[in-house]
Amino acid sequence: MMKERKALMLALLLAAAPACALAQQPPAPPPAAQVAAPVPWSSLSAQQRQLLGSLADRWGTLPPGRQQALARGSQRWLSMTPQQRTMARQRFQQWRQLSPQQRQTLRSRWQKFKSLPPQQQQAIRQSYRQFQRLPAWRRRVLRQQWQRATPAQRQMMLQRAWQRRQRGMMPMRRFPMMTAPRGPRP
User: Fold this and answer.
1) What angle do CA 175, 180, 186 make, to 5 degrees?
2) Which of 10, 155, 162, 170 has the most CB atoms in a 10 Å sphere around its CB?
3) Are residues 18 and 81 in the same domain?
């Protein structure tokens, strides 16, 4: 019973991995002209069949789109490093703990992000990486400032950040590094 439950959780993880990791909406059904073709169980690799084993008896009854998503997810899972798998499990658990409203908010943000031009997407990714490199205390302070700000203040914060970025300016360091100790001035 426990092994079957783990296998089912893994299958759910594989099916939901793109949604939880990227907070994207499940793929929309394809247009009638592009109806998904079923994935024969025999076309899966031995590793995929082992991973999705708990679904073997029901595989033929799953919708073709679901079969394709599970096949892609299992392939992606098998190509992950152990650290990536651990991260995927953690993100899936975080996703499951969100309320439906929080999930919908993330989905709409993801759709909005995907609709941006590639240059803006890259700028956002770079800003996020810079934010992640900040010390934990600094990220916490910035989050608190953002949460306390009114919508107008948030807009102003975003505009200032965008202007600094456009001018190629990076925020000044609080304590500039000195290359050599300074002595008394003549």
Assistant:
1) 105
2) 10
3) yes
Question: Are 99 and 122 members of one domain?
Answer: no
Q: Which domain holds residue 97?
A: 1-25+38-115
Residue 144 sits in the same domain as residue 66: no
Nearest to 50 by CA among 14, 2, 89: 14
pTM above 0.70, yes or no: no
If one counts the domains in the chain, the total is 2
CB count in 10 Å sphere of residue 61: 9
30 falls within a domain: no
Q: Which residue has the tokens 């092994």?
A: 3
Structure confidence by residue, pLDDT tens digits, 108-155:
999 999 999 999 899 889 888 988 999 999 999 989 998 999 999 988
